[in-house]
Amino acid sequence: MAKFDAVELDLLEEEICQEEEEEIETENAGNVIEVIEPTPDDENDRTDPTRDSPSRTDAPEGENEAAASAEGGGGFAKIVKTLQVIRDWAKRKERQPPEPDPLLKRLKIAAPNLLDEFAVDDDAIGGKTDGNGDGGGGENARRRGKVPWIINPSSEFLYRWLFLVTLAVQYNVWLIIARACFSELQEEYFAAWITLDYACDSVYIIDMAFQFRTGYLEQGLPVKDLTKLAWHYVKLKAFWLDVLSILPLDIFYIATGPSAVALRLNRLFKIHRMWLFFSKTESKISFPNVFRVTSLVLYIMICIHWNACIYFALSKSIGHGTDRWVYPSPIGEWGNLTRKYVYSLYWSTQTLTTIGETPEPATDAEYAFVIFDFLVGVLIFATIVGNVGYTISNMNAARNEFQDRMDGIKQYMHQRNVSKDMETRVIQWFDYLWTSNHSLDEQQILDTLPDKLKADIAIYAHLATLRKVDIFKDCEAGLLQDLVLKLRPQLFSPGDYVCRKNDVGKEMYIVKHGRLQVLGDDETSVLTTLVDGSCFGEISILNLGGVNNRRTATVRSVGYSYLFSLAKRDLLEVLTEYPVAKQRLEERGRNILIKDGLLTREEAVREENRPRTAVRRSSRGGGVVVSSVPFDDRAVGRGTSRDLEEEVRALSESLKRLRSEFNTSQMKLKQRIFLLEKKAAMATV
Predict the structure, then answer these.
(1) What's the rounded mean pLDDT across residues 625-633?
(2) DSSP per position, 2-56
(3) Is the separation of the CB atoms in 141 and 252 below 8 Å?
(4) Higher pLDDT, 513 or 546
(5) In whole angstroms, what is the distance from residue 401 CA to residue 406 CA?
């Protein structure tokens, strides 16, 4: 059996070493393991259980000693060696950060927040984390005394810690009142309660220590000074609630005995941390409405639980079995702890839910307690109806808005006597839009965000599409950021014509997903098929090759196709600032025209070198002339408001001068006409 184990371990060791050989060679000298290639002799000796395993020559001294001490153990030495290999492999995997997407890496300046999602989670506000939720460059930086350990208030570490604090708060909320009212529960499990009590108290104390190290923002910048952090926490109301929650009132157990569990009710002052955890959870999860309903049910159950415990304690003070309203005499099955709690919980549920059917009270104290319970029950019932109704309306808000728009379109088509076929197409379009989780107006949803954050979200949401578009692969980060803000989503139904040949081109398209056919002149033959990431329509909006603004082909959607449209005005406005990208796009359009036979290479060269007309101000007299000099887009991009004001002022002066000259010439002409008429009259006489 030992021989079989040794062979298995040796094979496992060789397999792991071969898989990680290249990565091991790049490690530091302290972590390198010398990999020995098996020889024929090694293969013959593999089944020998007394054969020594390869030594770790470059390992640290302590590890070499451990391996050397295990060499005489045969199979045990191989186990040690295998564990060392697995440990180093695991550490190496932990140290390797995930590679960011190439497109996002290139857009680091344009979209830094997107790159952070692919990096190691920054759990500390002071800097990078070492994976344990601390900042300032990790444990090594803290040892050097450079950066203190500060907790980021939005970190995952703090969120998980709040979950632990919430468990401690929930323990006290449920069990303190139960142990105080049901004495058997406290007495039978006293040792377990003492252990759990002081474990929760330890969590409370550690939580206060963490809050002294929890960072906050001041004027938008993280505060790292420990003194400021401490004073900031002390000034909060939460600090005094935390102090009240850890007051050691348990010391009075000496006088009252361990049955006075009510002394620990001050632990409930910590409930504000549970509310903070609930708030963070509601903002983190994708289904906040479900969490709100769950939280509401939890609060109601806590109210019913406390009311049940108080009912049993009141029955005990009045006397069990003295009347029909109180708990029966604890005899037989009624003396069982489970029956006591279940019956009290049943009575409390009936009362607080206003169901009624409970025994009528007999004493003034019983009447007062029932009246109070009825009032609380009405409040709970109103809370349930209000919160559940609000939650359900929020859950269906998107569907209701969508349905309202659909009903409006249907009513409009009915009033205009639209054909049934067209009405069916519109309804199917709406159905597909809803089932595919597409929004009617994405721009309206994102309008509340600033342009920078809006661009980051657009790039990340459409990353799979943008990565496939050729014109975006090598474009500048600023160009891509400007373009994604101007993209407008459009959904086409099966058989819809996106554009027809010779139509006026006002926009270009990028295929997000779907299939589109490029048709011939007869609109039946398929020239090619466009798939995800394809773009078309840029030729007609760039006025290349004398085609002006006309479409050069007909494009039809095969199924439901989701496209991004980019308007001509928006594209030219963006390309004005990026002449290199514009030149690349024009070159791509000319190549397509040459391939389709719509443009010859000589015409393409002339088109590329064609000067464009520019309006310039003459240096003589401030007049305006039209010159056919090459027009530089970058010059327009560099134009300032001052230059524009000067141009406008010069044009205004020229207009005034022309108007003055026109008035003068008109006066002279009128004078000459008057003289000619006078001479003609004298000659007639």
Answers:
(1) 41
(2) HHHHHHHHHHHHHHHHHHTHHHHHTS-GGG--PPPPP-HHHHHTTT-TTPPPPP-
(3) no
(4) 513
(5) 9
Residue 477 scores a pLDDT above 80: no
Instruction: Round to whole Å and give the CA distance between 387 and 383.
Output: 6
Q: Per residue in 97-120, pLDDT tens?
A: 556 566 566 555 444 443 333 333
> pLDDT tens digit string along 546-605?
555 678 789 999 988 989 888 888 888 888 888 887 777 777 777 777 776 666 777 666
For domain 286-395, give the fold.
Helix Hairpins (1.10.287)
Quick check: 537 and 551 in contact, CB under 8 A?
yes
CB contact at 8 A, 406 and 430: yes
- Helices 2-19 & 75-95 angle (0-180, nearest 10): 30
CA distances from 269 to 168, 173, 540 (A): 12, 10, 70
Asked if residue 538 lies in contact with residue 510, where contact means CB atoms within 8 angstroms, the answer is no
Domain 447-609, CATH homologous superfamily name and number: Jelly Rolls (2.60.120.10)
If you search the block for the tokens 């011939």, which residue do you land on? 520
- Note the pTM of the prediction, 2 decimals: 0.57
Rounded distance between C-alpha atoms, residue 424 and residue 428, angstroms:
6
Give the sign of the dihedral formed by CA 524, CA 525, CA 527, CA 531: positive
| Coil, helix or strand at residue 511 | strand
Strand 488-492 and strand 516-519: the pairing is unpaired
The first and second tokens of residue 383, run together, are 């809370």
Give the integer Cα–Cα distance in Å for 145 and 604: 67
* Residue 274, number of CB atoms within 10 A of its CB: 19
Domain boundaries of the chain, sorted by first residue: 2-95, 102-143, 150-284, 286-395, 399-435, 447-609, 611-685
Does the structure show a pLDDT above 50 at 637?
no
